Amino acid sequence: MPTFSAPDGTELSYRVTGDGPPLVCLPGGPMQDSVYLGDLGGLTAHRQLIVLDLRGTGRSAHPADDTSYRCDRLVDDVEALREHLGLARVDLLGHSAGTNLAVLYAARHPERVGRLALITPSVMAVGVPVTGDDRRGTALLRKEEPWFPEAFAALETVVEGRPSADAFRAIAPFWYGRWDEEARAHQRAADAQRNTVAAAVYGSEGAFEPEVTRPALARHAGPVLVLAGEYDLNSPPGAMAGVAGLFPDARLVVQPGAGHFPWLDDAGRFVAATAAFLA
User: Fold this and answer.
1) Residue-range domain boundaries for the chain
2) C-alpha distances in angstroms, 250 versus 16, 161, 247, 271?
3) How many other C-beta atoms lie within 10 A of the C-beta of residue 256?
4) How many CB atoms lie under 10 A from the CB of residue 99?
5) Residue 185 CA: distances (Å) to CA of 33, 181, 191
6) Dihedral pair phi/psi, residue 78, rounded to 5°
7) How would residue 187 be classed by pLDDT, with cut points 50, 70 and 90?
């Protein structure tokens, strides 16, 4: 895998797959090995994916300073990647927690961003509220599923501020549009792919200033896609409409039957929507 040096000297890795104009992809987790993105359901047929392993994840080196895992500090790594690639502007795709990094990069370097695709976004960087009722209402769409009673009871404990490792394991089916063996394998792998030390620092104090970021995004001139999953209780469609509303030129697409990883739930539908936006 090719590598480049971050401004602090940390060696960072990325993988390149597919054909077409380059698309820089930022994984979520937070701080999860980018391998979980795969080929984004076959988006490689339309774009060359340049998928960054964030510092301390995948094949990227661990930094000397753990505070450099903070999301706002990772913006410099993305800028270093752009310079390494020799691109005047980048089309940028972020997934989940990776969208925090994508929007912070767009806010700091608006002239460097072409098209911006935010896939089932996190709201930490922009301060759009997601309420317990938002999550309950989205979860109730799955009430006919055989696993629903146990998962919903666990969700209630999380929403009420009593999270536990067991509760988070129990709500795993809500992350996927189909809780089948592929989804179970994907979820099991995720537990082993995350740098938990880095994840604890990623959103720590000072990482996000929504009151500064939102006005910057309101001036963002480029086109933006916000893609939500109908069943995604992490990023419910109603809240995602609020994210789209932060930009002058944003399109909200809600993928039917999809959870937090829409390329797994219906690759064809995901690729069609995303490729059409990026074209």
Assistant:
1) 3-133+194-278
2) 27, 33, 6, 18
3) 12
4) 28
5) 15, 6, 10
6) -65, -40
7) very high
Please spell the DSSP secondary structure of 153-164, one letter per residue.
HHHHHHHTT---
Domain 3-133+194-278 has CATH 3.40.50.1820: yes
Tell me which amino acid residue 21 is: P
Q: Where are the beta strands (DSSP E) in the chain?
A: 3-5, 11-17, 22-26, 48-53, 90-95, 113-119, 224-229, 250-255
| pLDDT (tens digit per residue) in 102-153 | 999 999 999 999 999 999 999 999 999 999 999 999 999 999 999 999 999 9
- What is d(CA 15, CA 54) in angstroms, rounded to the nearest whole number? 12
Residue with tokens 């795709």: 93
Question: What is the spatial distance between Cα 155 and Cα 69, in angstroms, rounded to a whole number?
Answer: 29
> What would the pLDDT profile of 73-101 be if each residue is shown by its tens digit?
999 999 999 999 999 999 999 999 999 99
